Amino acid sequence: MSEVLSLTRAARLIGVTRAELQKKIQRGEMISHDGMVTVGNLLACYPDAQLEDTAETRRIALIKERAFGKRVFERALPEPEVLAARITELSTTLAHSQAQVKQFNALLGKLWDKFGEIEARLDSTSRKTMEDLRIWVKQEVEMATEPGFVNPLAIKDTVLRVMTAQVTVLPSKHDFLVEGHDTLLEAAMRSGIPLNYGCSGGNCGLCKARVLSGEVKKTRQHDFVISESEKQQGYVLLCSNTAVSDVVIEAEVAGSVRDIPFQQISAHVKTTGHIDDDMILLHLQTPRTQRLRFLAGQSVTLRVGQSYSMELPIASCPCDDRNVLFHIHRQPGNLFADYVFDHLRNNDTVEMEGPHGEFILSERSPRPLYFFAFDSGFAPIKSLIEHALSLDAETIRLHWFGSSQRHIYLPNIAHAWRDALDNFRYEEHVAGFDLRTVSGKREEMLRKQLDAIVAADAGLLQSDIYIAGPEDAVGVAERYFLGKGLPKTRVAVASVK
After folding, report:
1. CB within 8 A of 70, min separation 6: which ones?
2. Which CATH architecture has domain 369-495?
3. Which of 4, 403, 407, 476 gives a 20 to 30 Å CA spacing to 83?
4. ∠ CA 185-191-195 to the nearest 5 degrees?
5. What's the CATH code, domain 164-257?
């Protein structure tokens, strides 16, 4: 087992989140250096660490499966060739260790012989000193080679290295684990790391990255041609390779909306489901060779029929770039919504353009995350929360305001998050009036509801706040929190029609 571990691997071994380890480091309970912790410090903080996964780990795994929403996430074995390569690597390490033990034993034999030669030339006093030295060396060797207690972390780390490989991304220093049959790109997306890519099918070459150390294996054929010169330098396509061993790659990570290209995609309707009489869940699927790259919280423009269009927030996680969800609210005079409700059918074509907007997560912030959704503002908030879950955010709070109880239209999703995660809290609030029109007496009522929330939660004003919904309600909430002294950089807003 390595003397030092990344926070990602250490968290997996103990059965906690990275956020919990980071919190211990911030409080001074655990020492770290450059994102790494020693085994000794880890065991000092978790002396009762067990081999089995904890209930916390299982709950987080479950909620991530639900959050990704594309398929059941099976912790499957890697492909046989990859598994064999990892076992071979461990076997090589074991053989090397066994050879070192043999050399050590041979060295001990030579040492005893040398002691004997020296003692024969010494006087009685010096012989006594030499005998004391011999006894001390013998005791130390016996203690060093005593089998003793094997900490379960050592066993678990060995198993983890067979089942997964760790990837470190430079220069950003992100890291993630590759599990099952995932490619490097798929594993990064599951971990909420927005690497550069285009088609994710081996055609465009945008996910080309350089392997600086470690071994990767090609698991999918690709049409994009990597030159011999680039191959010699270690360049591969992330969408077509998996990690055999722990690897370090050089790849760009999107840090802002400016890093995401504008795209035009012809998607198809996979399903349309009525959430209620006035709300449809639209599920679009992009072609396999042209997936939508976006950041959580962004929007796209949809075009249907001959000329109906509307900009809508994406209600799904970037981790599933091919399956894109939207919550469409039927409103009087909205021809786009009328067409979706009355004419759009499965397999119909919908044009997508985008993404748009800067309502995205501030990933570098260590502060708790508070989300305020007003009516259909839940759509972009849902995308942000799912992304936050993939990043193992430490504290997530959701307050969903509905004009009426009916406007809190997907409460089961929030209930599932609340039931599955210890670090997630959820509250529903019924305004009792149309949140699209908030002024005068209504604004006063909404402010009183916000006052009650702040009074009941001392940590709220030390958090980052994300607000989405109808323009009037969002404006009131934004002014309220800015009036409480929060800087504009900690209050992000998005208007949703």
Report:
1. 319, 320, 322, 323
2. 3-Layer(aba) Sandwich (3.40)
3. 4
4. 40
5. 3.10.20.30
By CB atoms closer than 10 A (0-12, 13-18, 19+), residue 497 is: middle
Angle at 265 between CA 261 and CA 271, to 5 degrees: 125
Whether residue 463 has pLDDT greater than 80: yes
Q: What is the mean pLDDT of residues 275-304?
A: 93
Asked if residue 15 has pLDDT above 80, the reply is no
pLDDT score of 90 more than 80:
no
Q: Can you give the pLDDT at residue 381?
A: 97
Distance, CA of 12 to CA of 7 (rounded, Å): 8
Range list of β-strands (E), 375-447? 396-402, 424-430
Q: Give me the mean pLDDT over the 149-153 stretch.
A: 58
- What's the mean pLDDT in 255-274? 91
DSSP 77-123: PPPHHHHHHHHHHHHHHHHHHHHHHHHHHHHHHHHHHHHHHHHTTS-
Of 72-86, 160-174, 198-212, 322-336, highest mean pLDDT:
322-336
Residue 54 has pLDDT above 60, yes or no: no
Mean pLDDT over each residue of the chain, to the nearest integer: 86
Task: Over range 177-186, report the average pLDDT.
Answer: 88
Question: Per-residue pLDDT for 254 more than 50?
Answer: yes
Contacts (Cβ under 8 Å, ≥6 apart) of 187: 167, 176, 177, 178, 179, 242, 243
Q: Helix 80-119 to helix 152-163 angle, to the nearest 10 degrees?
A: 140
What gap in Å lies between CA 196 and CA 186, rounded to an integer? 12
Cβ-proximal residues to 118 (8 Å cutoff; 6+ apart), any chain: 130
Q: Is 471 helix (H, G, I), strand (E, B) or coil?
A: helix
Q: What is the DSSP letter of 451?
A: H
Residue with tokens 């995932």: 182
Q: Residue 194 pLDDT more than 50?
A: yes
The structure tokens listed for 395 are 């504290």
Identify the three-state secondary structure at position 156.
helix
User: What length does the chain have?
Assistant: 497
List the structure tokens of 164: 């997964």
Q: Supply the pLDDT for residue 64.
A: 56
Chain Cα centroid distance, residue 259? 19
Q: Is the dihedral of CA 248, 254, 256, 259 positive or negative?
A: positive
- Residue 333: exposure state from Cβ atoms within 10 A (0-12, 13-18, ≥19): exposed
> CATH fold of 262-356, please?
Elongation Factor Tu (Ef-tu); domain 3 (2.40.30)
Structure tokens at 87: 């076992």
**pTM for the model:** 0.77
> Tokens 């009941």 sit at which residue?
456
Q: What is the DSSP string of 28-90?
A: TSS--BTTEEEHHHHHHH-TT--SSPPHHHHHHHHHHHHHH-SS----PPPPHHHHHHHHHHH
